[in-house]
Amino acid sequence: MSYLPIVLQAVLALVVLIAAVTDIRSRRIPNWLTLAGLILGLGLNAFLFEINGLKAAAFGFGLAFLIYFPLYLLRGMGAGDVKLMAAIGSIVGPANWFGIFVLSNLLGGVIAIVLLIAKGRLRRTFLNVGYMLKELVFFRPPYLKREELDVKNPKAVTLPHGVSVALGSVSYLVAAAIWAPK
């Protein structure tokens, strides 16, 4: 965990909060937002930290894309989620991105469990997780035989991932302000 300059903190907070609001309202994260986040991340890091900053921003972008793109291909999340996390990677770099990734997914998991309990789908979801793992071992896309495993299908129980990412990012910023060396 490293302390981010205030301008990067502000850009991160602005991008994730807009993403959360638009994801709740329309279940989409706009391309203009993720592109602006990517350009600002690369540009500000290059300006603030020169070539090392640009390298870190590019590596953060690449790491996020490498982890999230396969989930998109398996129809486990939307393209906007991939682009949002890649933009965040360019803003904060790989080490900070990994912390945001962990917090976002932990908080998202808690929210998902509450949502599944409320919809009476907890047991079915755990069975689906076992099915997904079995299918992936044999290199078969799980959504082919179970339509509720396709995030684009109306039968799927979905969570606006932008909200989890915003919660994880803001939590990370708070933790970094308290514990990261300045």
Structure overview:
By secondary structure, the chain is mostly helical. The chain has one domain (6-121, 157-179). The protein is built from 5 helices and no strands. Helix 1 packs across helix 3 (79-119) and helix 2 packs across helix 3. The longest helix has 43 residues, at 31-73. The model has no long low-confidence stretch (mean pLDDT 94).
Name the features.
mainly alpha; 182 residues; elongated; 5 helices
Task: Compile the SSE list and pairings.
Layout: H1 6-26, H2 31-73, H3 79-119, H4 122-137, H5 161-179
Helix pairs in contact: 1-2, 1-3, 1-5, 2-3, 3-5
Sheet with the most strands?
Answer: none
Secondary structure: helix percent: over 70%
User: What is the ordering of alpha helices and beta strands?
Assistant: HHHHH
Radius of gyration: 17 Å
